[in-house]
Write a structure and sequence with these properties.
With 234 residues, the protein is mainly alpha-helical. Helices cover 68% and strands 8% of the residues. It is elongated, with a radius of gyration of 36 Å.
Length: 234
């Protein structure tokens, strides 16, 4: 038999013997501990493994979020279709077992959602405050968003009245339509009745009422804040 083969076989046998001896020594060392210390040691290792698992989950989550954000930026520059076309040319599964193609799919979904959100926000900007409040109330009722606490009575007892439309009647009519949702004729009638304490909007918080006053003041119209009860009586 070849001497080199014999030597290698002896070395492997010796390594196995030493490994078995070390394993036996370790088993005996653990067995020599009393029951409480064995239990404590095992619990310590279990806790360590659990902590490692938690940290790994956190790191994976951070890597995923960062990668998706970067892919969204790449897709924004080159386009979604070009991104997925390029992914066919590269190995998307890296050593960390993160599938880049899967992350790109997540990025595309998030970009679609972001676009919907921007569209919704744009539409909301065209609504008057009362319509926005109604929208949020309905979303709350449908369970889409958390329930919105009812405002305190003292914070929602205000109304605003148009005292004078100022030097720019057309701008005033436009603002009235925006605030009230009235048609052109109804808004014009309300503006023509300026000074007769016609209520422009009611059920407002003081902050909402003050924002309306500031808006009308920009083109010289005069709006005053009043208690809702007083306006209703008028």
């Amino acid at each position: 038999m070849n001497s080199k083969v014999v030597i290698k076989a002896r070395e492997e046998a010796e390594a196995i013997r030493k490994s078995a001896a070390a394993e036996g020594k370790q088993i005996l060392a653990f067995a020599d501990l009393n029951a409480d210390r064995r239990s404590t040691l095992v619990e310590a290792l279990d806790k360590l493994l659990a902590d490692i698992g938690t940290r790994l989950d956190q790191v994976r989550s951070q890597i995923r979020d960062n990668s998706v954000d970067r892919l969204k930026g790449i897709a924004g520059e080159f386009g979604i279709d070009a991104l997925f076309g390029a992914l066919r040319q590269v190995d998307t599964v890296v050593e960390t077992a993160i599938d880049l193609r899967s992350l790109a799919t997540d990025a595309a979904a998030e970009m679609k959602t972001d676009g919907k959100i921007e569209s919704i926000v744009g539409e909301m900007q065209t609504l008057n405050p009362k319509a926005v409040a109604n929208l949020f109330a309905r979303m709350s009722e449908a369970g889409v968003i958390p329930a919105i606490p009812a405002p305190k009575a003292e914070d929602s007892e205000f109304s605003v009245v148009l005292v004078g439309y100022g030097p720019n009647k057309i701008n005033c009519i436009k603002a009235v339509r925006e605030i009230t949702g009235l048609g052109l004729k109804e808004a014009k009638d309300l503006v023509d009745a300026a000074g007769s304490d016609k209520t422009l909007a009611a059920g407002l918080t003081r902050a909402e009422a003050e924002r309306i006053i500031e808006k009308f003041a920009e083109f010289g119209a005069t709006v005053e804040i009043a208690k809702a009860a007083a306006a209703a009586a008028a």
